[in-house]
Amino acid sequence: MNALVVYFSKFGNTKLVAEAIGAALQSADTVRLIGLNELTTADFGDADLVVMGSPTHRMNLPQAARPILDKLPKRILQGKMVAAFDTSYKLSWWLNNFTAGKRLAKKLRKLGGKRIIPPEVFHVTEREGPLYDGEIERARAWAALIIDRISGDVA
């Protein structure tokens, strides 16, 4: 399995989570980590799994990330497993429906991806972070759950 972990990060928190996820996916044949601003369509080529993350800005994807995602060709993720995450404040339960991870998951499915796990939120303490204690460990555990789900799909 080849994994591609894509992230958009303004203050570095989402990048830290993406790095932890990438490190935990080491059982994959190849794990590549790339910033969304550097992403090209060729990066998706041999990826079997695409994990994408972004901070939540104003209960949505950051304005700077949207045009990049909108330019991706339709069905580029056809046949690929996908997962999404975000970094955000701890919100009330009903506001958790308005996170970048949920928006990303929907976008990845529209691009043809097969969601293998619900989106996950990793929490920051303030607008610019840092992450709460334990969030990096939660990111590693979430990545391990992705591996378990993939193993279950393959078996």
**N-to-C SSE string, H for helix and E for strand:** EHEEHEHEEH
Structural class of the secondary structure composition?
A: alpha/beta
Helix content: 25-40%
List unreliable stretches of 5+ residues: none
Strand content: 15-25%
Q: Report the C-alpha radius of gyration, rounded.
A: 14 Å
Summary of the model, kept short:
The protein is of the alpha/beta class. Helix content is 31%, strand content 21%.
Structure, explained:
The chain is α/β, with parallel strands linked by helices and 155 residues long. The protein contains four helices and six strands. It has helices at residues 13-24, 66-70, 100-110, 135-154; strands spanning 2-7, 30-35, 49-55, 81-88, 114-115, 120-123. Strands 1, 2, 3, 4, 5 and 6 form a six-stranded parallel β-sheet that branches. Strand 3 (49-55), helix 2 (66-70) and strand 4 form a beta-alpha-beta unit. Helix 1 (13-24) crosses helix 4 (135-154). The mean pLDDT is 93.
